[in-house]
Amino acid sequence: MNKNSKRYREILKNFIKGKKVGSKEAIELVKKNSTAKFDESIDVSLKINLKQSKGGDLSLRTVVNLPNGSGKKNKVAVLCEPDKIDEAKGAGADVVGSDDLIEKIGAGKFDFTKLICTPGMMSKIGKYGKILGPKGLMPNPKLGTVATDIKKAIKDIKTGAVEIRNDKDGNLASTIGRKSFSTEKLLENYNHFIESVKKEKPDTIKGELIKGTFLTSTMGISYKIGAK
């Protein structure tokens, strides 16, 4: 029989059953409950309305640029033409390559968390979709990872761009920062995230796009959010 740790039992004392709380209060409670010894991620989870009036379910996939960053450190690789390698290095890429990087990817030898590709190299990387896709590394124009402006693409990823995508049940989750962030910065990130998702609502969705909002931390408990 599994037993909750002493730390978790203490956190449960702050649980508010069956009650919605404001976003600022929820953030303060989540921060208070982030008692693990590492800088826990503060995460928002949404239940979204998938049903479109004109057939088919909504598939939402986009990037949100958090105003205060996510606190996550990404190791960025850039796949580009040989004459753009120096530009990518100068822009802060951690890994840069052309055909040599493609060979490493094909052999499964890569150690990065994000891959940016110039449009001209997409035809070469396409056949490795089965390797990159399951890891969430396949470059995609909608996500800003197929780019002609290499400097901007690297900056966006390194300064707070988070990728979001709903699952088949309408669940969508993302980090909005770390417990070390101030309440004000987390609240600003949260509000920006919610508004960004709302803007993705198509005209074919009736009613509200967001049906439920929850806030938690890596090792904490979840709070359902009502009014701001």
Globular, elongated, flat, extended or rod-shaped: what is the shape? Answer: globular
Summed up, the helix count is 8
Oligomerization state of this entry?
Answer: single chain
Number of strands: 9
Account of the 3D structure:
This protein is of the alpha/beta class and 228 residues long. The chain folds into two domains: 18-71 and 160-224, Ribosomal protein L1/L10, rRNA-binding domain (Ribulose 1,5 Bisphosphate Carboxylase/Oxygenase), CATH 3.30.190.20; 76-158, Rossmann fold (3-Layer(aba) Sandwich), CATH 3.40.50.790. 29% of the residues lie in helices and 21% in strands. The chain has helices at 6-12, 23-33, 85-90, 99-106, 122-125, 129-132, 150-158, 183-198; strands at residues 41-48, 61-65, 76-79, 95-97, 114-117, 161-165, 171-178, 210-217, 223-224. It has a four-stranded antiparallel sheet, with helices on one face. A three-stranded parallel sheet has the order 4-3-5. The model has no long low-confidence stretch (mean pLDDT 89).
